[in-house]
């Protein structure tokens, strides 16, 4: 029995949630099809679906599923898994996927900090452009430190709410 057909689950309500949450993700900058695929995975009890299951739930083509999953995997929002003894892949969203996504952003911020430092050095810290880059660098250094501290607080909070996983 798929989770959409669970006795206490209204498939239409699930579909409405998927589309509504996907629309919020699109508004935040995610592409439409990856947003829909991500929301469908997030709303499945197992947190995992095959390409055909995603296509069926979202009424999209295998090519659309493939492109969406490729993007989501690149940004560490889903992972691919092989079914044992099969060539079929399952796509999984992890319970800690928000943590993973933020951790990935942290690596991007580090690269931006490096580039900004080079910019400040190249432009000169006392020039208007150099000061602007230095302020931007200071902002990202601040954010980087806050993310590290926030993620530690989240681990403690998550364990209180859900236990160790």
Automatic annotation (TrEMBL):
The keyword Protein biosynthesis does not apply. Keywords: DNA-binding, Transcription, Transcription regulation. InterPro entries: HTH-GbsR_regulator, HTH_MarR-typ, WH-like_DNA-bd_sf, WH_DNA-bd_sf. Residues 29-89 form the HTH marR-type domain. The keyword Transcription applies. It holds the Pfam family MarR_2. It comes from the Bacteria. This is MarR family transcriptional regulator.
């Amino acid at each position: 029995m798929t989770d959409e057909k669970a006795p206490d689950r209204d498939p239409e309500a699930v579909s409405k949630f998927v589309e509504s949450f996907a629309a919020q993700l699109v508004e935040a900058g995610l592409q439409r099809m990856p947003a829909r695929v991500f929301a469908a995975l997030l709303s499945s009890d197992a947190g995992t679906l095959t390409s055909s299951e995603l296509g069926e739930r979202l009424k999209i083509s295998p090519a659309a599923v493939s492109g969406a999953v490729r993007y989501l995997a690149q940004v560490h929002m889903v992972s691919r898994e092989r079914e044992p003894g099969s060539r079929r892949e399952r796509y999984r969203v992890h319970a800690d996927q928000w943590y993973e996504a933020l951790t990935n952003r942290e690596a991007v911020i580090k690269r931006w900090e490096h580039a900004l430092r080079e910019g400040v050095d190249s432009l000169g810290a006392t020039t208007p452009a150099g000061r602007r880059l230095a302020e931007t660098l200071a902002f990202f250094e601040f954010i980087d430190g806050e993310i590290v501290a926030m993620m530690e607080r989240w681990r403690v909070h998550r364990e209180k709410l859900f236990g160790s996983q």
